Amino acid sequence: LLSRGAGNLTIHRHGDRPCRRNAIVFLAQKKHSSYKRDSFANLLEALRLLEVNYLSIDKHAENADVFIFHTGDFNSTDLKEFRASLTPASMEAIHIVDISLSRYWRRPSWHEFDDPHKWYVYPLFSEGYRRMIHFFAIDIWKFFDDYNHHMGCNYTYIMRLDEDSYIHSRIEYDLFDFMNDHSYDYGYRLCAYEMGVALPIWGKWQAKRGRNIPIHRNIEGDMCGIYNNFFIARVGYFLSWPVNSFLGFVDRQGMIYRRRLGDLMIHSMAVFAFAPKERVHRFLDFTYEHGTPDQMTGCVVWGGIQAGYKDTNARANLMKYHDEKVSAPGCDVNITYMKPPDLSPSYSHLVENGVTDEVSLHTIMVGKVERFDMGQLSG
Fold first, then answer.
1. Which residues does 303 contact at the CB level (< 8 Å), separation at least 6?
2. Are 269 and 245 spatial neighbours (Cβ–Cβ below 8 Å)?
3. Which helix (H) or strand (E) element contains residue 229?
């Protein structure tokens, strides 16, 4: 279907409307390969909330297609399940794309003869998990570049959601038009303090390739990286020099598979280092949840929920989360109210968007996500 050597793709669609300029993307499975949870149920809930709080509002469903990438889990019969969560207009946007036999879901040649048992924290984090990292860090930009070229499309921005990424409040404006109108290359919602593991690869890049390439922000271990289970990115940015050169360097070093270098760290380096702050935007206006639960206790062990300043139902949304995912299972969390100095002031552009410094976002988190009083480390 796409470029020579790309392999085979199977795409199921509900309709045949022309492709739009933007895409909302999921990489989904019915049972998580590492966490063993019911991923299909989570995906249906993520789609339901996306429909209620975004796609069904105004004409948002007319401005973006929805790509559900998978590796053999889904087929045309699953469209019936999606139909229960989506309106007819949103169903027209659905593309179910099997990438299992394509080059977008394949070990790079330099890993062909690797023994996975020698990889760091394998099999706790499966090969499928590492392929997911590689897909969102490296392959997805090539996929849409190929798709645009061979299918006559012009996908400009893509928005990622995970199967457990939940938008809990209404977004009245078009996210993609907002990004385009402000000339943003990248947008994100939350940040996490996990960048220490990125320093070895960043040091190698600086020493071997990056000395003569200007950067906008140096990568430091204590900075707050992009918690990229939600992001909106301009495809052309990741295909441009020097970003594409940097991604190729990271890929060839083999640390995605062998050291489980995450797409969080790779996106953070690619964005913070090479994009000026006026081209990067941190969304703070809608309530967003993403958390990883422990398989045994059910308690979230990384992530959580943060209110958005435009959410008129924020208190109820946060209380519901607390009752169901903190109190009921008896879990420990950090509960605080985040102020502008701790909310990536370099990238949140609150003043430019007419928002006062009185913003205070109710936040329930676990792990090194959205830490209080970390100030400029968040950007």
1. 190, 192, 227, 229, 289, 290, 291, 292, 365, 366, 367, 369
2. no
3. strand 225-234
Residue 102 is given by DSSP the state B
DSSP letter at 18?
Answer: P
Q: Is 107 exposed, middle or buried (0-12, 13-18, 19+ CB in 10 A)?
A: middle
* CA–CA–CA angle 106, 259, 102 (5° rounding): 5
Token digits of residue 64: 């973006």
| pLDDT digit string, tens, across residues 291-335 | 999 989 999 999 999 999 999 999 999 999 999 999 999 999 999
Strands 22-27 and 10-13 come out as: unpaired
Tokens representing 44 are: 């249906």
Could you tell me the end-to-end alpha-carbon distance of the chain, in angstroms, rounded to an integer? 41
CA neighbor of 243 nearest in space, from 199, 283, 169, 186: 186
CA neighbours within 13 Å on the CB side: how many for 68? 27
Q: What is the spatial distance between Cα 212 and Cα 214, in angstroms, rounded to a whole number? A: 6
The Cα angle at residue 31 between residues 30 and 35, in degrees rounded to 5? 145
| Pure H helices in 51-155 | 79-83, 88-91, 127-134, 140-151
Q: Is the pTM of this model over 0.85?
A: yes
User: Strand, helix or coil at 155?
Assistant: coil
Q: What is the pLDDT of residues 262-286, one digit of tens each?
A: 999 999 999 999 999 999 999 999 9
User: What length is written for the chain?
Assistant: 379
Exposure pattern of 111-132 as b/e (b: 16+ CB <10 Å)? Answer: beeeeeeebeebeebbbebbbb
What DSSP state is assigned to residue 19?
P
CA 29/CA 47 separation, integer angstroms: 14
Gyration radius (Cα) of the chain, Å: 20
Phi, psi of 274 (to 5 degrees): -110, -10
> DSSP letters along 160-212, please?
EE-TT-EE-S---S-HHHHHHHTT-SEEEEEEES-GGGGHHHHHHHHHHT-TT
